């Protein structure tokens, strides 16, 4: 295994443990055992558990959850296409969690628990997470403005309010579903479609 693969393997293993047990429930010994790497190999990449937690959170919850990154290879020419791409990216995130650990039944709950820990441990990463949400709002605004310009949807709508509505539906759905079995992406898609029908010309 080359250096990059070893680092990715370490990050994936640590993320699985942090996702399922939370930070306090994971020790360096646990990471050694699960990854098959020695403590020296682990500390080569990160000086301690907190440093590893920081890097793993940045990799999996900040950088990869940037909507620019998630949608960069998806093609969409309309608001409807964008909605479908957004839901698809949610499905892929949930699938990635299940791939990391097939025992994770509720990826939404595990994800939210980690985000709350980020608030406590790393104010700078929490700020980056919030900045990603602001970027997401700007993307929704841009897509909705384009849909108005292309006469896909009505002109007499408040663009910012509509963008926030789509986002609030997603985050509200994610929160509610975190209390049960995890994000229901089919329900999310249906909610988006209902909003879209109201916006159509």
In short:
The chain has ten helices and no strands.
Protein model, in words:
This protein is mainly alpha-helical and 201 residues long. The chain has 2 domains: 3-56, Orthogonal Bundle (Arc Repressor Mutant, subunit A); 64-199, Tetracycline Repressor, domain 2, CATH 1.10.357. It is built from 10 helices and no strands. The protein has helices spanning 3-21, 28-35, 39-45, 49-63, 67-71, 79-100, 107-121, 123-149, 159-178, 185-199. Helix 8 crosses helix 9 (159-178). The chain is elongated, with a radius of gyration of 19 Å. The mean pLDDT is 85.
Q: What is the H/E string?
A: HHHHHHHHHH
What structural category arises from helix and sheet content?
Answer: mainly alpha
**Rg from C-alpha positions?**
19 Å
Q: What is the helical fraction, as a range of percent?
A: over 70%
Poorly predicted ranges: none
CATH architecture of the largest domain: Orthogonal Bundle
Overall 3D shape: elongated
Number of domains in the coordinates? 2
Q: What would the average pLDDT be, to the nearest integer?
A: 85
Largest sheet: none
